[in-house]
Structure formats: C-alpha cells, structure tokens
C-alpha cells in the first residue's frame, strides 16, 4: 500500500473539545478519514493524549501539536515507500515517536493515522473494514449492544457516583431486534423519569442524567423501564451492565457511594448485594486502579457469576491483560483503541483475551466523533460486545447504525456473545 498524502486538522469532539481528524490518500486516489475519541475518566497508564496546554486556546485543550506531528514527521515517514501491512506501519510510527507512552507525537496523533491506515489496507485488499480486522480463525459476530442509559460520575453533573448504567439485550434474537429493544427501553425510561418529576437532560454518553444518587434507585428505574417495554429483565431478555468507574469515587483507600464511606471489602459487599437484588450481568471497574485488595476480593466473590471487566486497570495493554490473567484479576477486558494508541496493539490485546479466555468488550470514549471504526473492530474481533453509549446522540448512534448496515449486508453473521 502506498500513501500519497497524509494530513490532520483540529476538529471538535462531542463534548466541544478539540480532537484530531486524520485524512490519508492512497496512490489510487482513495481518501480515508479517521476521527480520534477522547476519554474523561482515564486510567493513569493510558497512552499519552497530547494537548497543547496553551491557556489562551480551548483552556489548554488544543491539539495543534498532535496535528502538526501528523502533518510533518509522520506524513514524511509514511509517504515514502510501500507499506506491507498495518503492523509494519504502526511499528514504524511508534519507533519514530520513540517514547514508551507515545508522548512525543501524542497517542491522539498516532491512533488517527493507524485507523485511517487500517481503512486504506482494507480497501487495498478489496474487503470491508470488519473483514480486514478479522484475525485468521476468528468468526466475525454482530455484538450485543450495551446502551448506557443513565449517566453519572465524570459524564454528568448529578450526584450519582456510579458512571454508567447500561442495558444489554442479551436475549434478543438478532442485532436489529437488540437495537429496537434498547431504543424502546430508553424511551420507556424517559417516560418513567418524567412521571417521577426527574430531569431527562442527557449526559456525555447520551444517557439521562437525573438528580439521583443511589445506584439502587437507578437500577430500579432500569428494571421498571424494561418491564414497561414488555421485556424480561435478565439475561433471557434485557440485563443490566454497570461501569461504576470506581477510580472516580475512591479516595485515600475509601469508596464514597451515595453518602456512605466504604472500605474495599465493604464496597465488594455492596456489589454482592446489588447483584443479588438486580439482574446485573456485567460489572466494569467495580474497584479502583491500585486497589489490589478490592479487585482480588471482587473477583473471588463475584467472578464466577458476573462478567468483571477491567478498563482503567488494563488500559487495553496486552502485557497488562496477560499479567492479570496470570493472577486471575477480573475475567474480561474493555478495549479502547486510543487507550493503547494503535490498531495493531488493540488487535494484540483482543488476541490476548482470546488466548487467556478473557471476555472482551469494545468501547467508545465519552468524547467521540461520528467515526464508526469501533463498530467494524467489534464485528471483526468476534468478541460479541460493544458499548457505545445510549441509543441517542449522533456520535453514539453512528456506531449502532454502522452495525445495522453490516447486519443488512451480511445477514448470515452470527449475533451475540461467543460460546
Ligand atoms: P471515558 O469513560 O471515555 O470518559 O474514559 C468510559 C469508561 O470509563 O468506560
Ligand atoms: Zn470504564
């Protein structure tokens, strides 16, 4: 594959913050564009997102340095010669950056190049992006969408410490039905909130952000909305998935939830009770990064009956996921392309999950663009799970609608969790 031009510009993400958009042109004149996402509740070991730090522009959040890195050094590198495959291209860019955290160019510069290049390699091979991203021996699948319908934590200005309350239509017979179920439960939830006199304004990921603090109240609302829709709460119908994102409410060894201070052991007890009271099937970042005692206890108490997803503790890093599998921390990994910084490393992280029998869930970030790369990545990986926010807001539904397109063009693709 030959690249004739590579450029980047500074655009806005869904939160109104600057981010990078990358455009790659190949020698056949085809143009490939990628939009870079950005998180708000980040793990401390994520690849470095380069921000200008200039207080006179976007309160320091500008990305002109990352944009300049693409337009100069990375473009000079990639517009010379032939590229055999994506791994070679990604490796070369990382080598030129020369830092372990992609700090010189910024992971936000590197990941956009990697995503655009993946699209170019797919076109060069004459296959769709999800087929290009399917490893040998893996069956592509349409995923169970995990709709984040109640937002708290760093994604909303309400008193709810838990960040994400998701609904997962695990019992749906197909992707289009799962999408419809999710949208209908979302509508029922809006009606419930209105009836209760609660606000229906949206958080960063498109879920409602009512003025509630208690996770029990949030889960009750979800169960009511599922039932109102005529669906069954639980894995046979629509289950609940939580991402408390515990880093956000863990301070000096103590979790602060709904007005109570909890030790790590008490926090785990809290989850055991919650999982007993509600049809919860998946729990992400139930404990904070650094709380090894909590994570060990959480895995021991709930690992046999819940999917326990590591996000901030794993940061999509293949070596970290492998090390966690050695000691048995969690049983699933969240996969975010910009957390590690290249598509190649993301594919390696997914491969580690398959080898170690860890489940994997591909994820958007709270700051997004209309880019739908992660929809294709999810299908290609065969991991069977995607979280892309609520069935609302353009940047969120873009991913769900891309899955609808894939389902329409390839109706024989399997749907749901892999066996
Ligand atoms: P972020 O949150 O994109 O704001 O980091 C998403 C998550 O914690 O899963
Ligand atoms: Zn998370």
Question: Can you offer a commentary on this structure?
Answer:
The protein has 419 residues and is of the alpha/beta class. Helices cover 39% and strands 17% of the residues. The protein is built from 13 helices and 14 strands. It has helices at residues 64-78, 86-97, 107-125, 129-132, 175-195, 215-228, 264-277, 292-302, 318-327, 337-340, 343-355, 373-381, 394-409; strands at residues 3-12, 18-26, 31-35, 144-151, 164-168, 239-243, 250-251, 254-257, 260-262, 280-284, 307-310, 332-335, 359-363, 385-387. The strands form 3 sheets. The chain has an 8-stranded mixed barrel with strand order 4-5-6-10-11-12-13-14, surrounded by 6 helices. Strands 1-2-3 form a 3-stranded antiparallel sheet, with helices on one face. Strands 7-8-9 form a 3-stranded antiparallel sheet. α2 (86-97) packs antiparallel against α3 (107-125) and α5 (175-195) packs across α6. The longest helix has 21 residues, at 175-195. The radius of gyration is 21 Å and the shape is globular. The chain starts with a strand and ends in a 10-residue tail after the last helix. The structure holds 2-phosphoglycolic acid and zinc ion (ZN). 2-phosphoglycolic acid binds at residues 39-42, 154, 163, 243, 245, 311, 363, 365-366.
